[in-house]
Amino acid sequence: MRRSLFFSLALLLACDDLGSSPVDSGADPDAGTDDAGEVDAGASEPVQHTDIGNGVTETLVDGTDTRRWLALDLDNGGAVLDVSITEDTAWDLAIQRFAYRTNGGAGGPGNVRVAFRDDVTFEAATQAPEVGWTQDQPAEDSMIPDDVPMGEEVPTTVISHGEDPWFNYNPMTHVLTPKERVYFIETSDRAYVALQPVDYYSPETGDSGYPAFRWKMVDAPDGVLPGFDVDASSRDTWVYLNLSGEVVTVENEATDPWDLAIQRTAIRTNGGVSGPGVGGAREATETWEVLTETTTVGFVEDSLLPLPGPPGSGEAPGNSALATWFDYEESTRTVSARANAAFVVRGAAGGYSKLRVLAWDDGVYRLEIEPIARVVDTRSASIDASSTDVWAYFSFRQGELVEVSSASDDPSWDIGFQRTAITTNGGTSGEGEGASYEASAAFDEIDAVDGEFLVDEDLPLPGPPGSGTFSGNPALNTWFDYNESTREVSVRDTAFVVRTADGGFVKLQVEAWDDGNYTLRWAYAGAGGARFGDDE
């Protein structure tokens, strides 16, 4: 049977007779097709994806060029990748004429595996099987004979296997007909896809070399954790990731792009004492499944944390929020991932992803990382600044009042209040980048930073001439009107943009004031952000 199929395919390919479908075009099946690259698919792009509903995509590929493989990244919507299929690990599926190749085994350097089932329909396929997984085999077992040019050697792929390929072939009509079979692909990112070939001929011209297939994401097999493995077992080397969970090469932490660094049980972000970015993290209050977006407030930057061991073992950079990802059993010295713990990570450039550790084995992590959207929510704060002796300091980054012993050199606060006076952490008031300007638009209409910031300076205290000065912000201290005759303070209907101590941006309005008690309305764009609208 195999020799018969080999012979038929060799003859047909050598004569280019896997040609037009007589059903679709009425063409003579023995007439052949145009040379590779000259067949008109009726489309300008080599790959077309169509959303046909219920999470299913139908993909049409112009696979007529025998000089190249079209490599697809199924983890990213079937994106076409311009890569070397023999060197790159990001692609999952590659196509050339009727040959489907996967990035595993002899097919490529990745870890992609394939299984198939004939006893389940595509519609009923919701979970990948537990058994039957294999990878592409060396070219000596290829279904394509050596004397047939296909651009390069074609491995025996699971889908285009010589003894049992994805199609039935009619030697009388030279037409390929897809089998009623569902293939399951474990992708390079350890996601799972159900795929079914549906055609091999152009829907417009009927010419061959245009494989079409439908595919969808499905659940992992029972007992298989989602996510991907990261080997951070070395005690000497950090492993660096970006917000998509991809391992990146970093030679210089200060200049090379990275978002997370992992070594043994330690996790760092590219911010604070660990790096030059605006990285940070917080533990999520939502469950992993419902966590699709994040507010900008409440992120912890990296600081010096105690090293594991007895007191006095020293300190090292780390993120205190992420340091809670594991439980440690003293008696057995066992590290285990905390059940149901999820975190939100802010990247070096201000983007956001959710992160969870599913398992850990002597430094080898099983992680899930997925980008999520940023939401700039409008918040309210009540500030008791009625004391004439004590300033009340507030952090927009944390969304709360903070204790400050020395305002001039404490980076934790962004804005301070005492009676009617307001100060920012910059200029004459602090070592931060604090500043402000009065906005020309109403609070709800402020979408981006567009004014000239004023830093703190010595301002005259309220009262008669000679009452002294205080360090305050000249823009923010116009928030009120004062009636000399009634000695009443009234709030102006105006908004401000404030620069935080670390260079972030907040839009702010004083909504009410009662004898030193403020009611504030504010929204924080987030570290690295300069716009107050949500991510698209």
Description:
Mean pLDDT is 87; it is low at 1-43 and 141-151. The chain is mostly beta strands and 536 residues long. It is elongated. Strand 5 and strand 6 form a beta hairpin. The strands form 12 sheets. It has a 6-stranded antiparallel beta sheet with strand order 1-2-12-11-10-7, with no helix packed on it. The chain has 2 helices and 40 strands.
Question: What are the SSEs and their pairings?
Answer:
Blueprint: H1 2-14, H2 22-25, E1 47-53, E2 56-61, E3 70-73, E4 79-81, E5 93-96, E6 99-102, E7 113-117, E8 167-170, E9 175-178, E10 182-186, E11 192-201, E12 208-218, E13 228-231, E14 239-241, E15 247-248, E16 260-263, E17 266-269, E18 280-283, E19 293-295, E20 303-306, E21 315-318, E22 326-329, E23 334-337, E24 343-346, E25 352-361, E26 364-371, E27 373-375, E28 379-384, E29 392-395, E30 400-402, E31 415-418, E32 421-424, E33 435-438, E34 457-460, E35 469-472, E36 480-483, E37 488-491, E38 496-499, E39 505-514, E40 517-524
Parallel strand pairs: 19-27
Antiparallel strand pairs: 1-2, 2-12, 3-4, 3-5, 5-6, 7-10, 8-9, 10-11, 11-12, 13-26, 14-15, 14-16, 16-17, 18-24, 20-21, 22-23, 24-25, 25-26, 28-40, 29-30, 29-31, 31-32, 33-38, 34-35, 36-37, 38-39, 39-40
Low-confidence stretches: 1-43, 141-151
Mean pLDDT: 87
- Please state how the strands of the largest beta sheet are arranged side by side: 1-2-12-11-10-7
Helix fraction bin: under 10%
Biggest sheet architecture: 6 strands, antiparallel
List keywords for this structure.
single chain; 536 residues; mainly beta; six-stranded antiparallel sheet; five-stranded antiparallel sheet; 3% helix; disordered N terminus
